[in-house]
Structure formats: structure tokens, C-alpha cells
Amino acid sequence: MAAQLDGVLEKDLQEKIKNSKVLVVGAGGIGCEVLKNLVLTGFLDIEIIDLDTIDVSNLNRQFLFHKEHVGKSKAEVARDSALSFNPNAKIKAYHDSITSNNYGVNFFQQFTLVLNALDNRAARNHVNRMCLTSGIPLIESGTAGYSGQAELIKRGLTQCYECKPVPGQKSYPGCTIRNTPSEPIHCIVWAKHLFNQLFGESNDDEDVSPDTADPEAGAEVGEAALAKDANEKGNVDRISTRVWAKQCDFDAEKIYNKLFFEDIKYLLSMSNLWKNRVPPNPIKWDSIVEEGEEVTDAVARDQKVLTHSQSAKVFAESIKALKESFTKLPEGDYLVWDKDDKHAMDFVAACANIRAQIFGIPRKSRFEIKSMAGNIIPAIATTNAMTAGLVVMQAFGVLREQYEKCFHIYVRLVTNPRKQFIIRDKVLIPPNPKCYVCSAKPEVVLKVDTKNVTVRELRDDILIKALNMVSPDVTLDGTSTIVISSEEGETDCNDDKKLVDLNIVDGCVLKADDFLQNYELSITIVHKDPGREEAAFEIIADPSSLKPKEAEPSKETEKDEAQPSTSSGQNGSSTNGKKARYDEDVSGEVLVVPDDDDMPSTSKAGTSGSGAAGSSSSGSGVEKRKHVEDDEEPASKKVKVSAQQDDSDDDLIIMDD
Ligand SMILES: Nc1ncnc2c1ncn2[C@@H]1O[C@H](COP(=O)(O)OP(=O)(O)OP(=O)(O)O)[C@@H](O)[C@H]1O
Ligand SMILES: [Zn+2]
């Protein structure tokens, strides 16, 4: 092994490498590369864990796996393949989830160092907490397309994975989606909403009918049209789209005419909308002009941009298939949209293209729509390889105990003005004192409708999904009430009770304790009445932000208050520290500002992903986020960084333009 040759690494480090014991969490794109690097560098005691088995789609970049390994445990095959590089290494593999009860604090404490190579926020949060509790340094990493990063997380020294707020998903204004789409993505989002309205978990926020409350619309004209046409069309009646579709037995022609003719005509009646826009062109089913031959070949169907008539055929076929699956479900159950489900994907592609055609928006191939609808960012082997290299370099820094030099490192597609595409921060980002995970006294405020939210929702949606606990015990502070017990069955009788039934009301404090994570959180309840378009709950990580302001709020504060909170989980939202400032950053673009002597340097990149997320300044009391690179050019050379995040695989994107 080259790294063990004299002169490649210093003697002292070579010794430390030989004597250390490391845990690699995840044996996917980065994990395979990291494991190979560790073995080739001379690490002899390695454990690796992955819950998954090998899929054909992994083979193009997870080179420790071959065709014959498909279906086998990733961790076990990765171990066997890596051992071929150095049979003297000791590698233990676990085919399991790192969040399982088997891996508690004692497990983590055996390691010198933990290296994350994960693809989702929940697992990253968990390992973050375990490493904080155990006091073990963690190297967090991630890639998205051509961007990657590696970051040291060390208790008390650096910010933790959860010091930064959870970025919100990119969302589009309801009226753009419902009334005035102008880009293919608007039609794709609308089509996904339509899927849910017809077959999925319907949600008021995902209405697909014309929005009469659009402030830009000539509402009176629209209302008049509404009153006149109501009962015939179903679209503007007070019944839901699903009930109406069921009543007409999911007849493709009727649904088509409602969505793409009647609703569009109705939109046209909102004349103000079209004063400065090209108006849409409603097309009736029986006036669709046949264009192009029927496409039967699956590859062509995926790659070609279908004509309007071809899309209409796919629309009809997919509705028929989805109706069959839907009607087989027990009453109250629904379909879940999945990009890999043929009919669900066909439906969204067809609807998006038909709507695009009507609004004069370029149509897309099914393949393109799939990647946009599924938020797919291609995984690139070279980015993974580079990032894995950086992970091991960070590990060297830890072994040398040169923590102060373990700056956050990024791989970028576009070089900086000095032609560097591997760039690092100039300083370590300190912990956020308001962080609800790593601060001395973790606390949050939970704004929740105590009259309607149940104990089950508190546990599943808030504590587990939004606050990332694994198996919480919850008591009502100052009383002997056990609200939730992690012991099976012990508090099942509470599950369907509303919070108020257990006296969990405005001003109460709950103590939530996750034994596995060794994590205790104090939760102050603030009752909020339900609002139509509001999230069912909101988590505010900085309780002091709720206290009455002493002075008049500054303009900036007012603006901040008006921002929507970052979302975490489906219905809820969570914020950590400077919430509005953060939202502003993620919804738009972050302007990189030059270094400034009187502010600690911090960086903000696409945060999501890699978990090795972009750093933020939330802990330092600094209002402005700055991206500070080594050797950064003077102020005149400003670069923009924007952030984006997908649903669950939260890999980072940093884009320069
Ligand atoms: N809780 C967990 N415990 C252990 N391993 C996990 C856990 N969550 C995710 N992983 C693993 O982390 C790895 C991440 O690797 P990667 O991002 O390359 O994903 P992938 O599933 O291999 O690829 P893709 O998502 O692109 O199909 C995966 O192998 C995944 O199984
Ligand atoms: Zn923290």
C-alpha cells in the first residue's frame, strides 16, 4: 500500500492509522470508495454497516459490487471485496440499520472515529446525536451530481449536523401552479397534485382547480363564470375532484374535458391574468388532432417528446390502470405516487405535457419529466471518489489531533477564480448555542393545535419524523403523567387521545427522552388554532425568539416574521435559530460576500444534502451568511451559491453561476 511507504505519510500518522478503529456508516456510492481508501491507506480495524442489498442500479459506481452480488448485503459484499485489497485488515460488516437499538452509545464508543456515507437526513441526524453523546469525532460527507463535501463534527468544537436549520423544499406559489404556469416544472407539480387529488392522499394545499382567490385575477368575472357553470362541470362545485371523478367512474374523456377544457375556459374568464401573458388554449377531447404514430416501444416512449394526441392516449390508459388499482384498495386507502410505478409516472408525464401544450410551454420527454418529478440528481462516480478521498484526508486530521485544521471541504463543478474546484472554509464553524441537539440544555417551542393533534401524531409526526427521535419517552413536566412510553403497549391507550385530554395545553412543558440517543429535549407547548393553509405544527428551536421584543422590531425582523417557516416532515415545520433569514436564503440565492474582519467567517452552501451541508452562522450571532473560501478573491469577484433539496435523499447541491 502506497500510503504505508515511508515518506508518503509521516510515521506517527501511520502508527495512528494502524491502531485506530473506524466505523463507516453506509456502503453506497461514497461508502464503497471510503472503505477502499481506508484499506489502501493501512487502516486495519474497520466496521461497516448498511441496511440495504445491492441493486443493479448501484453497479455503475459502487465498484466493490458486481453483477453476481445483486440482491446480497451491501455491507457484507463491500467487506469481502475490500479485503481483497488487504487481506490483513479486519473488517466487520453489519447488514442492519444504524438507527436500530443494537447500536447504542457503547457501540459508538469503541471507535476512534465515525465516517458517515449516508443518503438521508434521518440516519445522519441519528449518527450525529450518537457521536455527540459518545464524544466520538464524526466525518460527515455527501455528494449531489458534481458537488460534494466533507466536514468534521466534533462535540463542543464544531457545529453539529443539526445546528443548521432544515432547508425547505422548493415550492411554487399556488396560483402559479393552478392558474398561470409558465415552465414545465409548474405543469409537473400540478400533475403530481392531480394524481393525489384523484388517487392519492388528497391535500387542500394541492388543489388543482382554478384559484379564484388569485389576487391578480379578475375575481368577479371568474366568480360569475363559476356560478353559471357550477353543477355541470364538477370542477367548481363544492365536491372534491375525487368524488366527482368517482361519480363519473374515472371516465378519461370526462376528466380530460374538465381539466383541459372547462377549467381552462374558466381560467380564461379571469381576464386580468392574461393582460400580460399569452392566454392558454383549451382543447376539447373530440377536437384533438391525431399526430404521430402510436409509440409502443418502451425506450422510445421514455425518450421521445410525445405529441398531444399521443399524450392523451397515455393519459387514458394510465387513468384506466390507476383506477383499477385504486378501486381494489379498502375504503379510505389511497395510492402513493412513485416515479418508478409505470402508470403513476405515465399519468404525470401525460398530464404535464397536455397542460404544457395548452399553456404554450415546451413539452418534455417522460425521462426528463421523471427526473424533474422525482427530484433525481444523478450520482457521479468521480464526485463520490473525490469526496471519499477528502473524507479520509479529514480522518487524517482527526488522527493527528489537528482539529483546528479540519475545515469543511467542498468539491465543485465550477472552479473559483483561482481555478480550484476543491475548496475549503477558512475557519471551523462553532456550535450553535441555540441548537436543540448539541446545546447544553436542548429545548424547543412546539406550536400545535392541542385540541386536535393526538398523542400518536405527537410521537410519529413530531418527535420521530420532525425531531428525529427514535423511541421517545415523554412525560408532562411537574406531574406524574407518562404521555408516551417506549415500552411496547404501556401507553397505547393514550395514542388516540388529543393532547388537551392529557392536560397538554398552552404553557405546559413536556420532557422527551430518547434513551437510545441519550438525548433529552424540553418542549414548551404553545397552543395554536388551526389555520386552513397552515402546517399542523411548528417547531421553533430558539424559544427566546418568541419572547416579546423589547425594542421596536427592525425592518428586517418584520420581514423575517412574514417568511414561511422551513418545513420538516409533511405537515410540520421546524426552525432553528434565525428562521426567516434562513428561508430567505434557501428560497432564493445566497450571495457570497467577501470576508469581513469584524465578523466570524462562515459559509453557506446547499445545505441539505450531504449532510455535510453548507455551514451556517446561526450560532455565532452573525446575521449575514458568508461563504468564505481559502484564497478567496477580492470583493469584486462575487459568486452566487444556491441551495436546493429533495424529499428524502438529502444530498447537497451547490451551484455556481
Ligand atoms: N439507517 C441506515 N443504516 C445503514 N445504512 C443506511 C441507512 N440509511 C441509508 N443507508 C445506506 O447508505 C447508503 C447511501 O449510499 P448512496 O447514496 O450511494 O445510496 P444508494 O441507495 O446506494 O444509491 P441510490 O440512492 O442512488 O440508488 C446506501 O447504501 C443506504 O442503504
Ligand atoms: Zn448542534
Automatic annotation (TrEMBL):
Family according to the record: Belongs to the ubiquitin-activating E1 family.
Annotated PANTHER family: SUMO-ACTIVATING ENZYME SUBUNIT 2 (PTHR10953:SF5), UBIQUITIN-ACTIVATING ENZYME E1 (PTHR10953)
The Ubiquitin-activating enzyme SCCH domain, residue ranges: 297-370
Pathway: Protein modification; protein sumoylation
Residues covered by the Ubiquitin/SUMO-activating enzyme ubiquitin-like domain: 446-529
Catalytic residue positions: 175 (glycyl thioester intermediate)
InterPro entries with a match to the protein in the record: ThiF/MoeB/HesA (IPR045886), ThiF_NAD_FAD-bd (IPR000594), UAE_UbL_dom (IPR028077), Ub-E1_IAD_1 (IPR042449), Ub_act_enz_dom_a_sf (IPR023318), Uba2 (IPR030661), UBA_E1_SCCH (IPR019572), Ubiquitin-activating_enz (IPR035985)
Name of the protein this chain belongs to: SUMO-activating enzyme subunit
SUPFAM superfamilies xref list: Activating enzymes of the ubiquitin-like proteins (SSF69572)
Biased composition (Low complexity): 565-577
Compositional bias ranges of the Acidic residues kind: 646-657
Binding site for ATP: 26-31, 50, 58-61, 74, 97-98, 119-124
Alphabetic keyword roster: ATP-binding, Metal-binding, Nucleotide-binding, Nucleus, Transferase, Ubl conjugation pathway, Zinc
Comp. bias intervals (Basic and acidic residues): 547-562
Single GO MF annotation: SUMO activating enzyme activity
Binding partners and assembly: Heterodimer.
GO BP term, pick one: protein sumoylation
Organism this protein belongs to: Anopheles sinensis (Mosquito)
Disordered: annotated span: 538-657
UniProt binding sites for Zn(2+): 160, 163, 435, 438
